[in-house]
Amino acid sequence: MLTIRNATLADGSKRDVRIDTDAGRISAIGSSLTESGKSIDATGKLLLPGAIDAHVHFRQPGFSHKETWETGSKSAVAGGVTTVVDQPNTNPPTIDGESFDEKAELAAKSYIDYGINGGVTPDWEPESLFDRPVLALGEVFLADSTGKMGIEEELFREAVERAADDYLVVTVHAEDADLFDEDARSRDGNDTDAWSAYRTAEAEAAAVERACEIGDELGARLHIAHTSTPEGIDAAREIGATCEVTPHHLFLSRDDLDELGTFGRMNPPLRSEKRREKVFARVADGTVDMIATDHAPHTRKEKDANIWDAPSGVPGVETMLPLLLEQARKGNLSYDRVADLTSRNPSKVFGMPRKGRIEEGRMADLVLVDPDETREIRGDNLHSKCGWTPFEGWTGVFPELTMVRGNVVFENGEFGEPVGENVRA
Ligand SMILES: NC(=O)N[C@@H](CC(=O)O)C(=O)O
Ligand SMILES: [Zn+2]
Ligand SMILES: [Zn+2]
């Protein structure tokens, strides 16, 4: 037994939270619970449900020079993330039973819990893939991104139908390459805004609409990955699909590209400041279901190329919750909204009913922070293998302690044991 005493919860209430460390669960919540076992005095501290990041690329197998399950999950837990969902564009891509098993073996080294998604290419094998403990289908790429897994509409339809048969959510990378601005391709390689000009906002909105129509027609549950425009968000929500926004689309815009250079290239790309503000408003008012990072590390050396040759993607799993807590500290978002966006909603959408909330009986996935203690974000101090961040110099509120099913996996800069488990296995 471990009791966290007098903690402030996301709704502002002050509670004692008792953890049955053997069972890994929250066993009681109350005021002044009687003494029993160890206790932590959390007076003045904020206790949040561990964050669930529904979109990461931990790069193994195939790209362990960018990230590994060990480095990625350490980065996650140091940022208050206790569960991640890994995407299929690894090498081999996670598209059949064999490739799933290969990834599952590597993922067993994770410090935190995880789900493993299955992907779709013309060679995928749904029978063997769905025979494994897959969390969801996706991200299914409607346009090429890192890994060149873009597929045609006909195969997308087949995949959505197959997923619906197994009641699996389908996470979609929604961009329509036919609507990219080919004229922008002639822009100079040093013009860092060119990527945003090329992969247009219209290309996202149109693809979201089309994907949602197909999902609706086939009776599938669609989740739109990394929506970067207000139009994309509205199109998804209108038809009842869920959606996520990344921290970079929430906080960064085309105005930052002068400074970021190719380190600000990702898919979908950064948008205008005007669109960013509208995205922020939809996150703050609850239209957007969740924040997910699309943590997509590449080495500095790989990123240090011209805008047409640099790989797409930025890291983010360690800075998501700290950046959101800083917004809450400043009064731009409530702590309750942050908990919705990072824990409660992803647990609901991706079917993890024992995670995502501080409630009796739920898993003791918990994050303890001092809500007034801020720290400057520096790539050097983060734990991802890539060693950089698009949020260099920003301010964050970082966890003091992160617990996964009652195990202290991170405390004051030190790591515990890698206790990660597949949430579906
Ligand atoms: N978002 C990105 O720009 N890159 C992602 C792939 C993806 O999510 O599309 C990656 O794996 O590098
Ligand atoms: Zn994507
Ligand atoms: Zn992604």
UniProtKB/TrEMBL annotation:
Gene3D superfamilies: Metal-dependent hydrolases, Urease, subunit C, domain 1
CDD domains named among the record's database cross-references: DHOase_IIb
Residues engaged in binding substrate: H57, F58, R59, N89, H298
Pathway linked to the protein: Pyrimidine metabolism; UMP biosynthesis via de novo pathway; (S)-dihydroorotate from bicarbonate: step 3/3
Entry EC number(s): 3.5.2.3
Family: Belongs to the metallo-dependent hydrolases superfamily. DHOase family. Class I DHOase subfamily.
PANTHER family, sorted: ALLANTOINASE (PTHR43668:SF2)
Name of this chain's protein: Dihydroorotase
Protein's organism: Haladaptatus pallidirubidus
Gene expressing this chain: pyrC
